[in-house]
Design brief:
heterodimer; A: alpha/beta; four-stranded antiparallel beta sheet; B: 326 residues; alpha/beta; eight-stranded mixed beta sheet; 11 helices; 24% strand; ATP hydrolysis activity (chain B)
Chain lengths: 311, 326
C-alpha cells in the first residue's frame, strides 16, 4: 500500500541565542535525522522519555514548527514548504490532539464554536447544517447535545479530551497526530478515550501518529512503533519486534521499567530491571558513539531495525 | 502500630453546607510497611492524606473520628502541636515537585528549614546533614545541587529534593501522594527504588497514594481501594491482585492497558465518580454508577466483611458479580 505520509531525514534544531545581540552560538538537536512512514489507516507509535524530541516531530508535522532540513511527503507530494500545504488541503487532512485539553480549548468559546470552527473554515458549513454535524461528532465521542452551549471548564478532564478528539475528527482528516492524548487522565477515563479513538479509526479509516511515553498505551494502540532517544530512533519495528525481541539496550531498559501487575514475580522483575540499569551504564559505549549520539539504524529483518555499532 | 485511623470523616463546606468527602475510613499502618491507597480522582485519596497531616483549611473542613499516631490523637490537636509532628514524625512527599518547592530559595535552605525547626543542630552540622541527605536520595553532586534553585533541576532531581526534605528529620511515617505521576518510567523506577531503600533504612511506614496499579503491584505490602470517600476493599497486595473481590477493584484492574497482552477494547467503567455535592450517602455507592450492577443484591448500609485473613470487602454484591461480557 502506498504511504500516506513519508518523513525522510527530518532534522529540527532549536537555536541557542545569547549575548547582547542574541547571536546564535549553538543548537539544540531536538530531532536529528528521523525517517519513517505511515500507511493509510494504521497507527504508528513514537515512544520516548521527556526531552527525546518526540513532541517536536508532531509539532513539525502539523506546521507549528519548521523543519531545519529533511523532507515530508504527503500523498506523494512534498509538503515541507508550508505554502504547498495550503494548496493541497494538507492542513485540513492532518489534525492534532493535544496533551493538555484545558489549555488547548479556547476558554471563551462554546463547544459548538470550538468543534464548528474547522467545519466553518474548511467546509463552509453554517446554521442548522453546522449544528447537525457538531451533534453527530459529539455523539461519536459519547457526549450529548446538551454539551453544545457549554464552555470547556464545565467538563471533566476526560470529557474535555473527548471534545479535543471530536474537534480533530471534524474536518474528516486522514491523519491525526495525538501527542500524549491520555497521559493526564485517570485509568478508567483513559480507557474510554482510547476506545473512542479506536472506534473512530474503524469508522473513518484515519491513521494515527501516537506520541507517548506510556509503553502500555502504545502497545494497546499501535501496530508499528519507534523508540526515540536523544533526537534519533534507536529501534523501529512492529509491536512484536519491539516488545518480544528488543535488541537495543535503551529499549530493554525502558521495557523493564514498566511496572508490572504480576505481584508474585515482583522481586524477579525488580532484579531484572536493576541488572539492565547497570548494564545500560556499563555498555553505553557499545550502543552510543563517542559524542553520545545514537548510531544509524540497521535493518535486522524486514520490519525490525536497530541502531547498533557496526562490527 | 504506627498509625491507626478509626471512623474518620472529613466534610468540606460547599455553598454553606458540609458534604462528606471521607466516610468512616478505618485504616492502619504498621512500621516497615507500605500501604497503598488506590482509586480514581475524586475518591478521597488526597483528602485522606491532608486529614492525617493536618493540611486543610479549618474554616472549611470538619474532621471527626480518630487518627492516632502511635498514642497521640491527631484529630483536634492545635496548630502548634501539629507543627511539631509534621516534618519530624510524619513526612509528606507531594505530587508536583515544582509547585511544592519554593522557587526563590536554594535547595539547601529548603532542606534546612525543617532541620532548624525540629533539631538543635549547629549551622555546620546542618550543612553536613544536607549533603548527607542529598547523597542519600541519589544525587551525584550534592555540593553543587545544594546551591542550585529548583528551576535548574530536572523533574526527577526535584522529586529527589522533595524526598530529601520529607526524610530530613527521619520521620517514621511518610505519606507519598502520587510521587511519580509526573515522571518518566525509568525515573519512576529509580524514585520507587529510592523510597523502598529509605523505608528499609529508617524502618518507616509509607502511605503510598497512587492511581497506577502497576506501581502498587511493585511496591505495596497492603492495599486499600477507595471509591467515593469509602474504603471498598482492603487486603494484602497478593490478595488484591490475584483474588480481587469488589466490583470496583475488578473494574479498575480490567481497564488497565497492559504491555503483555493485546485486547481489542479496553474495559471502561461507565460514568464518573460523583462530585461531592451529588454523592449519595446511602447504599452501595459503586452500584449507582454502573446500571447493571444495581440489579444485584446489596446491603442497605454496606459494611466491611472479612473474606480471608486480613482481606476485607464492602457490601455483599461481589458474590454475584460478573462482568456483563463474561
Amino acid at each position: 500500500m502506498e504511504e500516506l505520509l513519508k518523513v525522510k531525514d527530518l532534522c529540527v534544531y532549536y537555536p541557542v541565542r545569547s549575548g547582547m545581540f542574541k547571536h546564535v552560538n549553538d543548537y539544540v538537536y531536538a530531532v536529528d535525522g528521523v525517517s519513517f512512514d505511515i500507511k493509510p489507516g494504521e497507527s504508528y507509535g513514537v515512544i520516548g522519555e521527556s526531552g527525546s524530541g518526540k513532541s517536536t516531530i508532531g509539532q513539525t508535522l502539523v506546521g507549528l514548527l519548521e523543519a531545519t532540513s529533511g523532507t515530508i511527503t504527503y500523498a506523494g507530494k512534498d509538503v515541507t514548504d508550508k505554502h504547498v500545504r495550503k494548496k493541497m488541503q494538507y492542513n485540513k487532512e492532518v489534525q492534532m490532539i493535544f496533551q493538555d485539553s484545558l489549555s488547548s480549548l479556547n476558554p471563551k468559546k462554546k463547544i459548538i464554536d470550538i468543534i464548528g470552527e474547522p467545519l466553518k473554515n474548511f467546509e463552509n458549513l453554517k446554521g442548522v447544517a453546522l449544528k447537525k454535524r457538531v451533534v453527530e461528532l459529539l455523539k461519536t465521542v459519547g457526549l450529548d447535545e446538551e454539551a453544545l452551549y457549554k464552555y470547556p471548564y464545565q467538563f471533566s478532564g476526560g470529557q474535555r479530551q473527548r471534545i479535543g478528539v471530536a474537534r480533530a475528527v471534524a474536518p474528516r482528516p486522514k491523519l491525526i497526530i495525538a501527542d500524549e492524548p491520555v497521559s493526564a487522565l485517570d485509568l478508567s477515563v483513559q480507557a474510554q478515550v482510547l476506545n473512542y479513538m479506536k472506534d473512530i479509526q474503524e469508522k473513518y479509516g484515519v491513521a494515527y501518529l501516537f506520541i507517548s511515553h506510556d509503553l502500555g498505551v502504545v502497545h494497546h494502540m499501535c501496530d508499528r512503533l519507534a523508540i526515540m532517544h536523544k533526537g534519533r530512533f534507536v529501534e523501529v519495528g512492529t509491536r512484536d519486534d519491539i516488545y518480544e525481541d528488543p535488541l537495543h539496550i535503551y529499549t530493554k531498559r525502558l521495557l523493564a521499567a514498566i511496572p508490572q501487575t504480576n505481584v508474585l514475580l515482583r522481586k524477579k522483575h525488580r532484579d531484572e530491571r536493576q541488572r539492565l540499569e547497570c548494564e545500560y551504564d556499563s555498555l553505553k559505549e557499545d550502543y552510543y558513539d563517542k559524542n553520545g549520539h545514537v548510531y544509524p539504524l540497521e535493518q535486522i529483518t524486514k520490519t525490525h531495525a536497530v541502531a547498533l555499532k557496526k562490527e | 502500630m504506627l498509625l491507626e485511623m478509626k471512623n474518620v470523616n472529613a466534610a468540606f463546606k460547599v455553598d454553606g453546607h458540609y458534604y462528606n468527602a471521607l466516610d468512616d475510613v478505618c485504616l492502619n499502618v504498621n512500621e516497615d510497611e507500605i500501604l497503598a491507597i488506590v482509586g480514581e480522582s475524586g475518591c478521597g485519596k488526597s483528602t485522606l492524606a491532608t486529614s492525617i497531616i493536618g493540611l486543610y483549611n479549618e474554616k472549611q473542613t470538619k474532621i471527626s473520628g480518630s487518627i492516632k499516631y502511635r498514642d497521640q490523637e491527631l484529630v483536634g490537636t492545635s496548630a502548634q502541636e501539629m507543627d511539631q509532628i509534621r516534618g519530624e514524625k510524619i513526612g509528606m512527599i507531594f505530587q508536583d515537585p515544582l509547585a511544592a518547592l519554593n522557587p526563590l530559595m536554594r535547595v539547601a535552605d529548603q532542606i534546612k528549614e525543617s532541620l532548624t525547626l525540629h533539631t538543635t543542630l549547629s549551622e555546620e552540622q546542618k550543612d553536613l546533614r544536607v549533603q548527607e541527605l542529598l547523597s542519600q536520595v541519589g544525587i551525584q553532586n550534592p555540593k553543587r545541587v545544594a546551591k542550585q534553585y529548583p528551576h535548574e533541576l530536572s523533574g526527577g532531581m526535584r522529586q529527589r529534593v522533595i524526598i530529601a526534605i520529607a526524610i530530613a528529620c527521619k520521620p517514621d511515617l511518610i505519606i507519598a501522594d502520587e510521587p511519580t505521576t509526573a515522571l518518566d518510567v525509568t525515573i519512576q523506577a529509580q524514585i520507587l527504588d529510592l523510597l523502598m531503600k529509605i523505608q528499609r533504612e529508617n524502618h518507616a511506614g509509607i502511605i503510598l497514594i497512587t492511581h497506577d496499579l502497576g506501581v502498587v503491584a511493585q511496591m505495596a505490602d497492603r492495599v486499600a481501594v477507595m471509591y467515593a470517600g469509602q474504603v471498598v476493599e482492603s487486603g494484602s497486595v497478593q490478595q488484591l491482585f490475584t483474588e480481587p473481590k469488589h466490583p470496583y477493584t475488578r473494574s479498575l484492574l480490567r481497564s488497565m492497558p497492559q504491555a503483555d497482552k493485546v485486547r481489542d477494547k479496553l474495559y471502561v467503567i461507565e460514568g464518573m465518580v460523583p462530585s461531592l455535592k451529588n454523592m449519595e450517602h446511602s447504599g452501595c455507592r459503586f452500584s449507582k454508577r454502573v446500571s447493571w450492577l444495581s440489579k444485584l443484591p446489596h446491603e442497605s448500609e454496606p459494611q466491611m466483611h472479612q473474606v480471608a485473613e486480613g482481606h476485607y470487602v464492602r457490601c455483599v454484591c461481589w458474590k454475584d458479580f460478573k462482568f456483563s461480557q463474561e
